[in-house]
Amino acid sequence: MRELFDEASGKSPLDPEGAVRRMTRGPRRKRFYAHAGVVEAPDGFAAAKQELLDLSLLAPARFADDAEDRFLVHRWTGGALARRSSEAERGGAHRAAATYWRWRVAKLPQSRQNDIGDLLEARHHLRETGDLPQFDEVSTTIITQLDTWGAWEWEERLIRETLRLVPEGSRRAGAYLHQLGVVAYRRGDYDAALDWYHKSLAIREQLGDRVGMAPHTTS
After folding, report:
1. Is 154 a domain residue?
2. What is the predicted pLDDT for the residue at 116?
3. Crossing angle of helices 16-24 and 45-54, rounded to 10°
4. What is d(CA 84, CA 22) in angstroms, rounded to the nearest whole number?
5. Which of 85, 106, 126 is the last residue of a domain?
């Protein structure tokens, strides 16, 4: 890292937190919306971003099949931003980020693999906001695609993680248990598949879900 700030500016030579501070304070020049592909840009954002790049706290990243400029954020930078923000600001940032990643899937011409990568990003932010219905919807989309691809190990991990967040004994919990049975069946573990089906059926019986109690089928 090199000295970027002269003494006349009133900033210390190496002041990464100052750069972060200037990215998060001051009036907004213009309001952008995540569904349009961009987010709010505070005054001084471009200069502060360049300072962070020069300090190696941001690193440019470019994927082979993506012409968009992206950046890897140093853990220190993310931590400094989080410490300076309120709970409401963090919640708003997570909601905006989730909207942005879902906008990409809906609007950008990209591969399905990139769609799933973006949905995983959205899922993370939805989890942080506690928006369980949207989190469940995105999780289901990802899980369905992983099942289509035959990525059963990854699918199982995602289902188990999601199960920990949905209400125990709920209809959604029953659906995820059933899907674990589907995964086990596809992998040839028929005893485990039957066990998961029975657990799913028990929940549906408790909820009086007559439709859900119909015989399970797998393909």
Report:
1. no
2. 95
3. 160
4. 11
5. 85
Q: What is the 3-state secondary structure (H, E, C) of 23-51?
A: HHCCCEEECCCHHHCCCCEECCHHHHHHH
**pLDDT tens digits along 123-136:** 999 999 999 999 99
Domain residue limits at 132 = 86-149
CA–CA separation, 63 and 68 (whole Å)? 8
Sign of CA dihedral 62, 66, 69, 71: negative
Distance CA 128, CA 18 (A): 27
In order of 22, 51, 93, 146, the CA distances from 109 in angstroms are 34, 33, 25, 20
Q: Is residue 45 part of a domain?
A: yes
The number of folded domains in the chain is 3
| 55/217: higher pLDDT | 55
Could you read off the pLDDT of 167-202 as tens digits, one per residue?
A: 999 999 999 999 999 999 999 999 999 999 999 999
For residue 56, give the amino acid letter: S
137 and 191 share one domain: no
In 3D space, the residue among 176, 175, 193 whose CA is nearest the CA of residue 184 turns out to be 193
- Name which of 30-39, 64-73, 208-217 the model is least confident about: 30-39
